[in-house]
Amino acid sequence: MTNIPTHHHPVRLRRSVLSVPASNARALEKSRTLACDAIIFDLEDSVLPEKKADARAALIAHFAAAGRPTGQEWVIRINPFSGEHGLLDLEAVLACAPDAVLLPKVCGPRDILDAGDWLAERGADDGPRLWAMIETAASILNISAIAEVGRTLGGRLDCFVVGLNDLRSETGIADLEGRPYLIPLLMQVVVAARASGLDVLDSVYNDFANAEAFVRECEQGRQMGFDGKMLIHPAQIAGANDAFGISESEAAAALVIVSAFEAPENAGKGVINIRGRMVERLHADQALRLLAKADLIAQKETQE
After folding, report:
1. Is the dihedral angle over the CA atoms 178, 179, 183, 189 positive or is it negative?
2. What pLDDT shows up at residue 5?
3. What is the C-alpha to C-alpha distance for residues 203 and 186, in angstroms, rounded to an integer?
4. What's the CA gap between 235 and 27, in Å, rounded?
5. What's the pLDDT score for residue 153?
6. CB 84: neighbour CB atoms within 10 A?
7. SS3 content of the chain, % helix, strand, coil (to 5)
8. In sequence order, what are the residues at sequence separation of 6 or more whose Cβ sits closer than 8 angstroms to the Cβ of residue 87?
9. Gap between the Cα atoms of 272 and 255, Å rounded
10. Residue 163: pLDDT band by 50, 70, 90 thresholds?
């Protein structure tokens, strides 16, 4: 495979990102067997205040035990950094060493910078990365400034996760099939993420028993440009992996573009004619990334 250009954000699989309550011992153990691309171990909304300390202890034990699936990202969602549990959660993060920390209720760049500074002051310079929940009206208003934090030298910001339950609650926007009044907000998040080289995940779908409507929302998210979807139930994993995956026809079309630009007669050309369609070199970049993602999916499927 031709090398991916180095100026791009690394290619990662984030089709299916399952949220698991850190206070649920059975869910923690089952999570080791699941085919999702990433797991968010939640210390925030799904854990009652009186269970927070036990959940932190359970999470430290879970991370210390063997049996982590190869290539699966492990993320910890902490409580708000400014609250009574946030700092205790970050202490647990240092003990667990996850791939990323998901920050809830992000409102502006300062929320990202403060968490990054805290980790750097404690010697965690190389990790974990930071993910941001985009679930407040303020986060939508400040989305460009928040995203730009990811482009700063040494910036830890890696991924946006849309949280529509909180956003709908705060704004009063209706929860309708097809999300008509939310589309403008969702597209702002996607565009801001792409401008700063971040991944971006679509919000949870609450009615996990309605598989058909879930798949429709996944397909909508894919068309909007999302990399994957945050999930609340293991039954949603297969649908998300399929919707945000790479079809054989997509991979074949990408291979045609890459091969055409690599042909000697097209060396140095910025635009070429492929089967009657004008294709630019930027499309070759996109095709390379799609093929790299397809490779990662194939590797994952052979390991399962």
Report:
1. negative
2. 34
3. 10
4. 13
5. 59
6. 10
7. 50, 15, 35
8. 81, 118
9. 15
10. very high
